[in-house]
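User: I'm putting together notes for a lab meeting next week and I want to include a structural view of one of the chains we've been expressing. I don't have a solved structure, so I'd like a prediction I can at least talk through. The sequence is below, exactly as it appears in our construct file.
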Amino acid sequence: MKALAASGSFVPGSNFSAWIHRIMINHFLSGVRSRREYNGLDQMPEVAIPATQYDRTEMRELDVAFQRLPKEQKEALRMIAIEEQSYEEACGATGCAVGTLKSRVHRARLSLRSLTDGEIRAAA
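Assistant: Thanks for the context. Below is the predicted structure for the 124-residue chain, given as structure tokens.
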């Protein structure tokens, strides 16, 4: 029936089989689309998106915690984590051993974690 209804669009001398095949494919796709399940806005799942001010607050808390670190730990963490220097480059700049620098970075990360966790728990 679809081929008869669209017979005016067939160009004589072209590939009849391809023309019929395209009609069948379009009919199939229309059927699939009509059976597709649509959800309204009231049926959409709720997804929590953190507000941008929450991110800014966390960054401020992290900055306050970073400022509370001892000078050596702050310098070591800045070179390794922020400036992304290698431990060898940072050792050359500070004049301390690699193990000492790794220890300072580790202790600085632990201190930051405990300081920020404590502030978050106190605020909650």
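A couple of points you could mention at the meeting. Confidence is low (pLDDT under 50) at residues 120-124. The domain at 68-123 is CATH 1.10.10.10 (Arc Repressor Mutant, subunit A).

User: Perfect, that's what I needed.
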